[in-house]
Amino acid sequence: MDKIAFDHTDEGSSLNCNEDKTENGSDSACPSSVRGKPKSGRIWKSQKLRFASIKKSVQCKKSSQQHAFREEIKHIKELSRSIKETRRRENDIKRLRREENKRRRIENERKSEIVQVIKNPAKLKRMRKKQLRMIERRDISKLNVV
């Protein structure tokens, strides 16, 4: 019997693109690089390219269009700059207000405290550790103590 050999490669597939070229020599039917199904099975993932390798489109705009485009970009940049500036100013105002409120709160706490001046240093020797921890040094000239 005659043995029949089958070629398992598909003649019209893009895998054999380099081997089979059309008679006129154009290779437009096959893509530049053929990628098969990923091993992970994640077919929705695209191949990552470096930013420099991405082909940029050739600009075919008229000079008036380019000028309008540049003006629009300048306007957008100026707008974003002004927004950033206002946001920075608002943050500075808020920060200054917080600092002022904190300073006033501490000042009010100091005013409202009941202060007892210790004139006898021997009393400090007799005090327990817990009481000594609560003692704070203050400038008496600022306090309104008689």
TrEMBL record:
Residues 1-11 have a biased composition (Basic and acidic residues). It is found in: Chromosome; Nucleus, Nucleolus. It comes from the Eukaryota. One of its GO terms (cellular component) is nucleolus. InterPro entries: CCDC86. The keyword Transport does not apply. Residues 76-116 form a coiled coil. The keyword Phosphoprotein applies. Its main location: nucleus. Keywords: Chromosome, Citrullination, Coiled coil, Nucleus, Phosphoprotein. Residues 1-42 are annotated as: Disordered. Required for proper chromosome segregation during mitosis and error-free mitotic progression. This is Coiled-coil domain-containing protein 86. It comes from Anopheles coluzzii.
